[in-house]
Write a structure and sequence with these properties.
The complex is a heterodimer of chains A (about 280) and B (about 325).
Chain A: H1 4-24, H2 30-35, H3 37-47, E1 64-67, H4 73-83, H5 124-137, E2 144-149, H6 156-167, E3 173-179, E4 182-183, E5 186-187, H7 188-192, H8 197-203, E6 207-212, H9 216-229, E7 236-241, H10 264-272
Parallel strand pairs in A: 1-2, 2-3, 3-7, 6-7
Antiparallel strand pairs in A: 4-5
Helix pairs in contact in A: 1-3, 1-4, 1-10, 3-4, 3-9, 5-6
Chain B: E1 8-11, H1 12-26, E2 30-34, H2 44-49, E3 54-56, H3 61-72, E4 77-83, H4 92-101, E5 107-111, H5 129-134, E6 140-142, H6 147-159, E7 164-167, E8 172-175, E9 189-192, E10 197-201, H7 205-218, E11 223-227, E12 230-232, H8 236-246, E13 249-256, H9 261-272, E14 277-282, H10 292-298, H11 303-315
Helix pairs in contact in B: 1-6, 3-4, 7-11
The chains are: A alpha/beta (about 280), B alpha/beta (about 325).
């Protein structure tokens, strides 16, 4: 079990990895990646029982994670690399030709840690539910985690999946929504408001927890609470409030950095705010 | 012209149902999903025998494709069943990203394909599904011709590692292929050897091609009839070998001319063996309500149309 200081060190390094990856090809999505850093670092380093050194597509008898909002691939790649799924130096190939680190995650190029392609939004929850039901058939009592975006809640498939999960009592799944209130064209309130998201998920039959996704100890606590609620006949959702661009001051509080890379000066500033802790790739 | 004995008259979807039931007994990894069309897909026996391996999805096809993809992670072999229209066009991006690009071992079981769905009309009569599916990298596209072949194809699909699109239909049609046939994905079946023309047919049009062959034989035309049950991967060797001999081609299918079997054959021949070719297919049109015979006649994919196409293409040699 990692302590908070250890997690903070990983978080700082992951933030560096994110801005450096996005900077190197002037391409990628830093905003949402930075906002979900604490969550993914906690999940992979403190919560999930997984097997980074011996990746198998089937993932039998280990916890699984699916990223539905695939555009925040930089944070996932960094967390996977730092967890030991693949050599961290491979991050230098992000979004380049012949890379396994495609713009959006995919198992197509054989990258360890990735079990489904995502990028076209709204599909990850369904896949996670299928994997969760396969675990039940296999008498495998490990859990399935999935992260979705909040803008993604506008996709109809999410609600098909939400209805299906409750009806079938898929209680070995812990879904999380990155509730940062922003999408490409502006705030979710302006673009297509999500309304009472908590009430909607509860009405669909899910147990909903809420957490500030940029506070390390709280995330760990909430994920553990979610875990303790699994296996009780109800799927679990964590509504996780985050700040886009968290940890890089000029990227915070705006949706402008959804899919824009920092220039050289901005990179320098971002790196100065997040010290190197585990060695840059 | 070889004689083909009709063993009975059965729907191809029942062949799927029987194949699935057999798989339920022989392969514990096979699971089935259905979007509120269990009876239409003939899944009842599988469900009765394996209730824990069946997933009722409700009218939610997008979720069904995602859940099917997820079930493969954990080693399951899912057969996701619904009408062909809802199994392809409605969920194209789900199939593309979560199944094909992700390389998932999902079998898409698509019933009621084409005009022969009949009275429900054009909303349900998809004629574009072969094209949609064959364009996806790595997707195998199978369109068997009768009950026995659909059963064999279903069993073969489970043994194939990777995504498969299995297309079958609603109406009862002559069941004439061997009950104990070995179904080889990607292997064309020569039904009748001939020298004047080759008819490449798929699905329900295979029997129509046989009927056309009988009529043409009476006119002294020697017709080679090849059942292309697998449109992708296409048995290029078999196609080229036959056309080398006959030097002209008719393709026949219950599908749009754009994107169907004819397209695949023409593409191969234009590259390797340019030859006169005529297409018996629906020509850039939606269908409508009617009986299957009425529709096949009105939309130009019945026996006389094959006869006519053969007469025309032979003159172009």
């Amino acid at each position: 079990m990692a302590d908070i200081q250890k997690l903070e060190q990983i978080v700082s390094q992951v933030r560096r990895d994110i801005v450096r990856m996005v900077h190197q090809n002037n391409s990628g999505h830093p905003g949402g990646s930075l906002g979900c850093t604490e969550f993914l670092v906690t999940l992979y380093n403190e919560v999930m029982e997984h097997n980074p050194k011996n990746f198998s597509m089937d993932g039998k008898n280990e916890d699984l994670f699916f990223l539905s909002n695939g555009h925040i691939s930089p944070v996932l790649y960094s967390v996977l690399g730092r967890a030991g799924y693949f050599p961290v130096k491979e991050m230098a190939t992000f979004r380049s030709l012949n890379s396994r680190l495609q713009g959006h995650p995919t198992p197509h190029e054989g990258l360890e840690g990735i079990r489904i392609a995502s990028g076209s939004l709204g599909q990850g929850l369904s896949v996670a539910l299928g994997a969760a039901q396969a675990k039940k058939l296999n008498k495998d009592n490990k859990l399935v985690y999935v992260l979705m975006g909040d803008g993604e809640q506008q996709e109809g498939q999410i609600w098909e999946a939400a209805m299906y999960a409750a009806h079938n009592k898929v209680d070995n799944i812990i879904a999380t929504i990155d509730y940062n209130g922003a999408q490409i064209d502006g705030s979710t309130d302006e673009v297509l408001s999500l309304g009472d998201l908590k009430g909607k998920w509860e009405a669909f039959g899910w147990k909903v927890l809420e957490v500030d996704g940029n506070k390390l100890p709280e995330i760990g606590k909430t994920l553990k609470e979610a875990k303790s609620l699994s296996g009780k006949g109800t799927p679990i959702l964590i509504l996780m409030t985050t700040q886009m661009g968290h940890g890089v001051d000029f990227m915070m509080g705006t949706h402008k950095w959804h899919g824009v890379a920092p220039n050289n000066e901005q990179l320098k500033s971002a790196l100065a705010q997040n010290p190197e802790t585990l060695g840059d790739y | 012209m070889k004689k083909f004995e009709i063993q009975n008259v059965k729907d191809t979807r029942s062949g799927f149902g029987e194949g699935l039931t057999e798989l339920g007994r022989t392969n514990p990894d096979v699971v089935a999903l259905c979007a509120d069309l269990v009876g239409s897909l003939k899944m009842d026996d599988f469900i009765k025998e394996n209730p824990e391996r069946f997933f009722q999805m409700g009218i939610a096809e997008a979720n069904m494709m995602g859940v099917a993809a997820g079930l493969t992670i954990g080693g399951k072999i899912p057969f996701a069943g619904t009408f062909a229209n809802f199994a392809t066009g409605r969920v194209y991006d789900q199939i593309r990203q979560s199944i094909a690009y992700s390389g998932k071992n999902v079998k898409i079981a698509a019933s009621h394909a084409g005009l022969t769905l009949g009275e429900d009309g054009a909303t349900h009569q998809i004629l574009e599904d072969i094209g949609l599916m064959k364009m996806l990298p790595g997707m195998v596209v199978i369109n068997p011709c009768d009950f026995n072949q659909t059963k064999a194809a279903t069993i073969a699909a489970a043994a194939h590692e990777g995504p498969v699109y299995l297309r079958f239909g609603r109406p009862k049609v002559p069941n004439f292929t061997p009950v104990d046939q070995k179904f080889e994905i990607g292997k064309a079946v020569v039904l009748n050897e001939g020298t004047d023309v080759t008819i490449f047919a798929t699905g329900h049009l295979v029997w129509k091609a046989i009927q056309a062959g009988e009529i043409l034989a009476e006119q002294g035309i020697s017709v080679e009839i090849i059942n292309i049950h697998t449109i992708k991967p296409l048995d290029e060797k078999a196609v080229l070998a036959s056309v080398k001999k006959t030097k002209c081609v008719v393709t026949a299918e219950e599908h749009q001319m754009n994107g169907g079997l004819g397209d695949s054959i023409a593409q191969l021949l234009s590259r390797q063996l340019p030859s006169p070719i005529e297409f018996v297919a629906v020509n850039d049109s939606f269908g409508e309500s009617g009986t299957e015979e009425q529709l096949m006649t009105k939309y130009g994919i019945n026996t006389p149309h094959i006869v006519e196409a053969v007469q025309k293409v032979i003159k172009r040699k």
